Amino acid sequence: MRIAVSGSHGTGKSTLIGAFAAKRPQYAYEPEAYEVLADDIALIPSEGPDAEGLAALLEHTASVLANHRRAASVIFERSPVDYLAYAAATRSMTASERAEFMGAYVPTVRDSVRNLDLIVLLPVSSEGPIASPPGEGERFRKRVDDKLRRALIDDDYELFVGRDAPVVLELSPFPDQQLAELMRLTEVEDEPPTAQKNQIARSESDHATSQSA
Question: Which residues lie across from 28 on neighbouring strands?
């Protein structure tokens, strides 16, 4: 199964992936693009990468996704959708610059996510492993979280239309539950991709029902 862990900064993505990899050693790990491209990415204080940097990170992520075959067992730190969310959340772009970025990259992301079977969203939470100091940095982190939820859960950009789109789920805000949920979602590893998605959907429906009971 090809899995991407999405989330704003400081939501515990690398912590979850490290714990998951210890339990599922058959999974390859692909780090987030910034770890590879950091020397070439300009950062804006409290806002993260600039537009050029976001484009480079998105393009790198899409390229890495395309390198993994359909039946691969691999977990990615961040999905291409993350960079759309950062572009939507940043105040360093004008409205016209943002519209240009989205017009150029939404189709790229729509195609790229077809190289994933599952995207899990880690929400910003006071229960998370990294507590950000109050101020603009924390407000930006929450804006990114909101834009990610709109892109992934609400599908504002219509990225997940069609049978070949990945399953998208939001994990618990509690770190001690996130690993258990991800382990449960990957228990269908030996199933064909379509059967995996059907099983994940049934499993998530059962989970949601138990949570509301």
Answer: 74
Q: What values do phi and psi take at 57, rounded to 5? A: -65, -40
Q: Distance of CA 155 to CAs 89, 159, 169, Å?
A: 16, 6, 12
Residues 61/19, Cβ–Cβ less than 8 Å: no
Q: What is the pLDDT of residues 3-40, one digit of tens each?
A: 999 999 989 999 999 999 999 999 999 999 999 898 88
Helix (H, G, I), strand (E, B) or coil at 49: strand
Q: Go through the chain and tell me how many residues it has.
A: 213
Angle among Cα 13, 78, 193 to the nearest 5 degrees reads 105
Token representation of residue 47: 């806002």
Q: What is the DSSP string of 135-161?
A: SHHHHHHHHHHHHHHHHHTS-TT--S-
CB atoms inside a 10 Å sphere around CB 98: 17
26-46 burial: b if 16+ Cβ within 10 Å, else e? ebeebebbbeeeeeebeeeee
Which amino acid would we find at residue 46? Answer: S
- The alpha helices in the chain, defined as continuous H runs, are 13-23, 33-37, 51-66, 80-89, 95-112, 136-152, 175-185, 193-212
